[in-house]
Amino acid sequence: MDISKAPNPRKLQLCRTYFMTGFALLPFVWAINVCWFCEEAFRKPPYPEQAQIKRYVIYSAIGTLVWTIALISWIIIFQTNRAAWGATADYMSFIIPLGSA
Amino acid sequence: MAPQKKAAAIWLLLFLQSTATVFSERTRDKMYEPILGASCFRRLNGTHQTGCSSTYSGSVGVLHLVNVDADLEFLLNSPPSPPYAPLIRPHLFTRANLLRLKEAGPKIISVVLLINRTDKMKQFSHELNCPNQYSGLKLNRSMSETATCDASGNVANTWNRWGTGLLHEDFPFPIYYIGEDKDIFKLEDCFEKFNNFNYESHALRSLCAVEVKAFMSAAVNSEVCIRRTNFINNLGGSRYCDPMEGRNVYATLYPRNASENVEVNVAGSEKFIIVSCRLDTTSMFDGLGMGAMGSLVGLAILTQVAHMLRLLLPSPGALSDRQRNVLFVVFDGESYDYIGSQRFVYDMEHLAFPSPSTHTAPISLENIEFILDIGALDDVANIKLHTLTSTPLANQLLQQLNRYAKSPRYNFTVNIESNVGYHIPPTSAQSFLRYDPKLPVLILNSVPSNRYYHSIYDDLENVEFTYANASKDYTTLADIGDTANIFNSSALQMGVRNVSSIVAMTLYEILSGKQYQGSLVANPLLADEFFYCFLQSSDCPLFKAASSPNSPAGPQQPPMRYISVQGGSQESSGWTYRMLGYLLSHPQPAVSKENCTQLPLFFFAGLNGTGECRLTTQNYTHALSPAFLIDNYDWRSGDYSTWTESTWSLLSARIFLRPSNVHEITTLSIGIVVFIISFCLIYIISSRWEVLFEDVPASNAA
Question: Global pTM?
Fold first, then answer.
């Protein structure tokens, strides 16, 4: 879908839908929202709905950032402690490496 | 372009492509030369992993022939182009050397190749000084080690003084055994031609290297790999390890009565004398190791004792007490913390032996009159009768054994002495004593003199066996002097005959209440056939006689006697089952072949292959450690054997010329440069397409 051809209220509605969907533990939707509406929010000449779109984009960006930090730190913690956690770590995993602890 | 030219261009392209694929296969075949051998693999117990594993894609090392210790020093101290793969001879394959290689790490030593050059070898055993150190008889439950062997004391007093214990070490590199001369020549030749000169330039030139693939899936210990295998998230269903399991074989001297309600009836007044030995052996390398002296001699003696008693006491009518019977049991998996005997005792304790499917009453430990365990008889002329305490039974048995052993009439020249106390050999009997030290257990074992215990070299040369192939009837008893012209008195067959006869005569005296007066002794021809089958070829007269008449001949190799896992060959228990069944069975001439299909009736090929119906008594019991049956078993408790074997997808080795680092980097850089240039070229061509295709109208090209 080419967003530049959509009317402004439709853009706002789309942006809000994406922002709301992100709350269903879907940080990638927030990330997509940021990429997709970044230009609309900050580059385009002002129009009435732009302030709200801008707000949603900024909130989505913050959400994405928080998720990224949380995921990266969890992955680091898990990967460095997996062997030490023993059975607990195995129960958390779907793929267990072959031939090592 | 004219259509003919286009077609020609396409043909040329196709032709080039097809030749290119043919060439690529040839290149691979030219690059690699396969090496046949046997690999070391990973086994795990409740606390450790042992054995070897390669890296996931295969470990590669530069060949280096180690002839003397100095060659090893050179590799460890100043390796010019690591990692290396030392080619080691058995006499240098010592604990000290291997631990140094392990310490150097896989960056310096990535593969170890053991070559079959035995000229300087004096001993080769990788079992512990105290085999089954943690599963034998203990003084009290808090001890972790057995009281029957002191591993920290004088090595000469242990049960395997030549043992290096390498079987219980974990190596970070694969160890590959190369047995065939052809393959050893290939390796030596490649080493001489490409590696063994100008060591300063090793880092700069192509070197002959070996790649060994022996990647093991399991890790850490049995608890972890069993948990991962049974894991609910294990969607792929991949197995990490399998418990070691096999089959114990047992047979009774007389058939037991079938009983209807077997759940409630314990075999009340039945009394059993158990004669036992072990079935299995092990070694460091997959599929090798015959355990000739370590365990096969014991099995040969048990077989002959069973056969002789069957012929001397054909029916229970000859017994002083008709409730008596002899139970012959051959335990599997004894090399790995007594798997078979632990399970047997566990089954007896839970009244699960024999299994309900046999429709016979369960036998409990109270039904046992005594247990005579045949251990390792390294020296068949000097035997000790081990007991925990001095009992009237032990004294009487020793006296009876010695009466026949020393009798001038038979001239057996066997010396049997008593040994009372905790210095008990690592045999199946320890499982019984561990359950209850008061059980009447007697063990026949000689002073250990096997320098190749649990190794690939415990073979027919170790027991000095030569097949006489007399082609005579081996199913009858022989007169004392009958076979003197076939075997000399020091032959293995005669040694086995002597011990078997003494034991059988003693058991005859106990069972019948009369001294044995006959002149017939066990037949050394049976021992001859037995050893031929188990050491040289399964396609042999004894195994043929013990199969059904039309069954296919056994393979030309001897049966593998390592316990293995579920789905393993289990051929040794199969052959032992049929052989014991045949030798202990009673002919049923009245039964026709058509009616002889249901056990206990079995139609054997027999001595001359014509077929005969016989009433058999043999059966299997499951040799799987109780640790795998008990819910929430504590793997670290040490109560039962916890051995598992890792799974693997491939064991292979091949040699090739490994290019130097400089060469590899150059090749990669050229590749990258060509890649970039090709991109630029395509870009230029596509932006200047009008030059090439000037006759195509511009509107069509868009």
Answer: 0.87
